[in-house]
């Protein structure tokens, strides 16, 4: 059970050791090669993976549309857990509204846990809006299928990237 409203939970198993899966989530050279919607490129401006640290980056669509986003890391426990609050931002890292919906939650918490068994890593991602208004919760709920589909595509890219690293 999640401690936030409208939470998501996605579990996926990767044919890779937990240390490698954790590394590709926390090393900017790796992260830039798989994170985000399929077809988008990611520019990592900053990645300071420690409690209170920040990831700041921009995603470019195939059509050239650029969106900035940030993670503020809450908990970092190598190689088993990452907790971060995700937001849309400007180039300086100031939180802004999502470009696609003025009611999208300003903050989404993501709790990533990794468990290894027989050389394979089970990744569980839980998350949802934090400090959200009723309108923001409704917007998240309406977009839930697209969010899940988006993570499915991102995790497919992660799977392919992990295979290329072994």
Uncertain segments: none
Task: Tell me the number of structural domains.
Answer: 1
Write the element-wise H/E pattern from the N-terminal end onward. Answer: EHHEEEEEEEH
Determine the number of helices (DSSP H or I, runs of at least 4 residues). 3
If you average the pLDDT, what whole number results? 94
CATH architecture name? 2-Layer Sandwich
Shape by Cα distribution:
globular
Largest sheet: 8 strands, antiparallel
**Percentage of residues assigned to helices:** 25-40%
CATH class: Alpha Beta
End-to-end span in angstroms?
35 Å
Number of strands: 8
The CATH superfamily label reads START domain
Instruction: Please report which band the strand proportion falls in: under 5%, 5-15%, 15-25%, 25-35%, 35-45% or over 45%.
Output: 35-45%
As for the CATH topology, it is Alpha-D-Glucose-1,6-Bisphosphate, Chain A, domain 4
Organism: Paenibacillus glycinis
Domain Activator of Hsp90 ATPase homologue 1/2-like C-terminal: 15-162
InterPro entries: ASHA1/2-like_C, START-like_dom_sf
Pfam family, one: AHSA1
Short précis:
The protein is of the alpha+beta class and 166 residues long. It has helices spanning 18-26, 28-31, 134-164, and strands at residues 8-14, 41-47, 54-60, 66-77, 81-89, 95-96, 108-117, 120-129.
Describe this structure in words.
By secondary structure, the chain is α+β, with helices and mostly antiparallel strands. It has one domain (8-164): Alpha-D-Glucose-1,6-Bisphosphate, Chain A, domain 4 (2-Layer Sandwich). Helices cover 27% and strands 39% of the residues. The chain contains three helices and eight strands; from the N terminus they run βααβββββββα. The chain has helices spanning 18-26, 28-31, 134-164; strands at 8-14, 41-47, 54-60, 66-77, 81-89, 95-96, 108-117, 120-129. Belongs to the AHA1 family. Pfam families: AHSA1. This is SRPBCC domain-containing protein.
